[in-house]
Backbone:
């Protein structure tokens, strides 16, 4: 079986068995199904689901097929991607994870199809330095690239190793928002206009989303100040300065942490503060710095040398402290939930596309409250 037109590869697997892990896995499947429908409507010839859990996607949509993982074999992104491209003879492949850019729709995918139909060798991505979605032509250009452990380096390999020309999608909420952790699911629970299947999955995070509602008005308040801390990129900072009414106090730390070399030791200014004053006084100090805190907790964990389970991290994102096994993370999350100002906990996606999506919702609700546009 070979394909001449663009084909989207969606990779899904290794989701875990914890309650929060399963919640996110269900949402990622819903997101993938919606993404597949949008890609096909935009002109993709087929969608290939590379997964260790085919039953999660049944019944299959038309023009969607499985490429099941080999049972018992550890997942390896590089070999998995190369294998699918080669096995199906893909000339215009695109690849993404099941939770990647769930708000990207037909319009964006139609633009990708147009770019892949160009005569010259090129690739399209949503983020050159940390990709969630990458499409390229010719498909066999991947054979010239060096080994990749993660999908986010694929654009750099296609440019530097294979010589393909880059095309970067505009930085919008749709192209930057990812479904990586339950905090992102809480953001989706606030977002109107979702595909019904994804909206149903997002409803599982409604309790956490309701806590976020106290945060929304601050983004539209010129007298408010919001603290944002973690792996915040310059583009996100610029967006917040441009698109929010509040003042932003920014702590940008440990960019590139996820791809740091083995043995790398993270250091964080907020981590040092936490060590000096303890958990309770940490949140008291944060309340003096702003009216709300949006925190990428993975930087704090790395600074302290903590390695909580993914389920513990996800429960912390949901502010469900009682279910967390790691002692420090449980106490930290409990204080965050009872802090004197709104606290949002999550990973890198929360302080990137997540904040952009939250800001969109904040202004929609602000306009509705003021009767603007009605």
Residues:
């Amino acid at each position: 079986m070979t394909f001449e037109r663009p084909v989207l590869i969606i990779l899904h697997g290794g989701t875990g068995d914890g309650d929060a892990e399963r919640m996110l896995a269900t949402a990622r499947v819903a997101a993938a199904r919606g993404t597949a429908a949008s890609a096909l409507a935009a002109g993709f010839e087929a969608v290939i689901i590379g997964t260790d859990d085919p039953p999660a996607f049944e019944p299959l949509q038309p023009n969607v097929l499985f490429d099941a993982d080999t049972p018992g074999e550890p997942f390896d992104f590089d070999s998995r991607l190369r294998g699918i491209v080669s096995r199906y003879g893909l000339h215009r492949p695109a690849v993404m994870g099941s939770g990647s850019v769930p708000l990207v729709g037909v319009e964006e995918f139609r633009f990708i199809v147009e770019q892949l139909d160009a005569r010259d060798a090129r690739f399209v991505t949503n983020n050159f330095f940390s990709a969630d979605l990458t499409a390229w032509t010719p498909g066999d250009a991947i054979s010239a690239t060096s080994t990749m452990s993660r999908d986010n380096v694929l654009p750099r390999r296609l440019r530097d190793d294979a010589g393909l020309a880059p095309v970067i999608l505009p930085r919008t909420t749709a192209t930057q928002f990812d479904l990586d952790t339950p905090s992102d699911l809480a953001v989706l629970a606030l977002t109107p206009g979702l595909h019904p299947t994804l909206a149903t999955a997002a409803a599982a995070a409604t309790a956490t989303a309701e806590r976020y509602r106290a945060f929304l008005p601050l983004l539209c308040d010129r007298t408010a100040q919001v603290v944002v801390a973690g792996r915040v990129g310059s583009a996100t900072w610029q967006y917040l300065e441009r698109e929010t009414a509040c003042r932003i106090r920014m702590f940008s730390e440990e960019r590139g942490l996820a791809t740091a070399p083995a043995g790398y030791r993270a250091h964080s200014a907020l981590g040092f503060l936490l060590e000096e004053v303890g958990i309770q006084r940490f949140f008291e100090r944060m309340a003096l710095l702003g009216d709300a805190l949006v925190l990428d907790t993975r930087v704090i964990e790395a600074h302290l040398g903590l390695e909580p389970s993914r389920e513990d991290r996800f429960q912390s994102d949901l502010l469900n402290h009682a279910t967390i096994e790691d002692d420090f993370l449980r106490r930290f999350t409990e204080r965050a939930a009872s802090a004197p100002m709104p606290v949002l906990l999550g990973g890198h996606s929360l302080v990137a596309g997540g904040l952009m999506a939250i800001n969109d919702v904040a202004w929609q609700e602000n306009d509705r409250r003021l009767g603007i546009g009605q």
